[in-house]
Design goal:
single chain, 53 residues, mainly alpha, 2 helices, 91% helix
Length: 53
């Protein structure tokens, strides 16, 4: 999931450089969403690991 977030971030940067504002905005929102999902799942996984599940 983190890989997809990085890919969408790179697409957003490239689209922004070439002037495709709509694509850049959409890609950055998708990257941000995927990154936050990754962080939440990581914290849940870490918490469950500490509990021994």
């Amino acid at each position: 999931m983190l890989t997809w977030a990085i890919i969408f971030f790179i697409v957003a940067i490239i689209a922004g450089l070439f002037g495709f504002r709509g694509v850049a905005t959409a890609s950055s929102k998708i990257a941000k969403f995927l990154f936050f999902i990754f962080v939440v799942l990581f914290v849940i996984s870490l918490f469950l690991q500490l509990l021994g599940y």
